[in-house]
Design a protein that fits this description.
The protein has 226 residues and is mostly helical. It has helices at residues 5-23, 39-66, 69-100, 109-129, 134-162, 176-179, 183-225. Helix 2 packs antiparallel against helix 3 (69-100). The two termini are 37 Å apart.
Length: 226
């Protein structure tokens, strides 16, 4: 995305999310109580993760079609930040679960699916680190990236809905929007989703620019020495 307007938008939305998330009223529900405010941070992390992994897969496909190193760099950096958001999603979910379910980890299908999905993406980075040839590394990891995204979708969005799950909207449980995501929460939740996604893209774009600059420096040093 060109220009800086979306960066300012991200900052404004996240400031609004933090202030509104702590100060605006929320539904008074048994057990959940004030912990429902975690929705503004936990769920948007997953949205951010999925968007970044989707962009990573898109650039992986672009690399396979064009064989341009820049596409590989964009793919891997999107995957890096997507994995960070996934870890933050699991951590914020564990904090929330500790207060509402009694312990940080219950072996819930969605928890297990998210953990497996992240392990698949961690294996993606292991694969990249195990190959020295740049072109081979980029091509194999691009193919694996497509597989990783295809595996993540059923692990997070399909299997938990088919089995018993304590997560809202899964395993027969109604989703938040059916009983407790009231208008006040929507005023914070939707801006939070957009703000966190923009922040993730911003971080990834900075990492991409840094990697491209490093590659240019390496090329200049190579030309200088030869």
């Amino acid at each position: 995305m060109k220009g800086s307007y979306w960066k300012y938008l991200s900052i404004l939305l996240l400031l609004y999310t933090v202030v509104g998330g702590f100060l605006m009223s929320v539904p008074r529900l048994a057990i959940v109580n004030e912990t429902i405010r975690g929705l503004y941070y936990h769920v948007p992390m997953w949205f951010g993760m999925v968007v970044l992994f989707l962009l990573s897969t898109y650039h992986a496909v672009r690399y396979l079609m064009s064989n341009q190193p820049q596409q590989d760099i964009q793919s891997v950096e999107m995957a890096h930040v997507g994995t960070l958001f996934g870890v933050l999603g699991i951590v914020t979910g564990m904090i929330w679960a500790n207060y509402t379910w009694g312990s940080p980890w219950h072996g819930d299908p969605k928890q297990n699916g998210a953990a497996i999905a992240l392990l698949i993406y961690l294996a993606y980075f292991v694969l990249r680190g195990s190959l020295d040839n740049r072109e081979q590394r980029a091509r194999l990891s691009a193919v694996y990236n497509i597989f990783a995204f295809a595996a993540m979708i059923p692990l997070i969005f399909i299997i938990p809905r088919m089995t018993s799950s304590m997560h809202p909207g899964n395993g027969g449980n109604p989703g938040f929007n059916m009983y407790d995501l009231d208008n006040n929460m929507r005023k914070v939740f939707y801006p939070a989703v957009i703000g966190w996604i923009l922040l993730g893209y911003w971080i990834a774009s900075l990492r991409i620019r840094l990697r491209l600059a490093e590659e240019q420096i390496k090329e200049l040093e190579y030309e200088k020495n030869n």
